[in-house]
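Fold it.
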Amino acid sequence: QVQLVESGGGLVQAGGSLRLSCAASGRTSSTYAMGWFRQAPGKEREFVARIRWSEGSTGYADSVRGRFTISRDNAKNTVYLQMNSLKPEDTAVYYCNSNDGDYWGQGTQVTVSS
């Protein structure tokens, strides 16, 4: 089992920044990738970003590329999502997962006001 705990969400004005964290614990030795998804009210959960744990290669949704950066700290078993130039349409609950959905965190709310 792997436990994922997100933090760092909050309320920010459009154009602002937030950094989300997701700390993994438990049986993390088999982790090969971690990612971020988000779900806005009335919408389906959508992919945001992904990072491969070993070499650090990354991937992003078109809607966030150039504004969001995913990174990881292997020693801390933590993945981050730096979100810059936030827009009201970025408002959602943000979830992290490991190994493409084997495990999910509980989510953290991000609200961007216009």
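The chain is about 0% helix and 55% strand.
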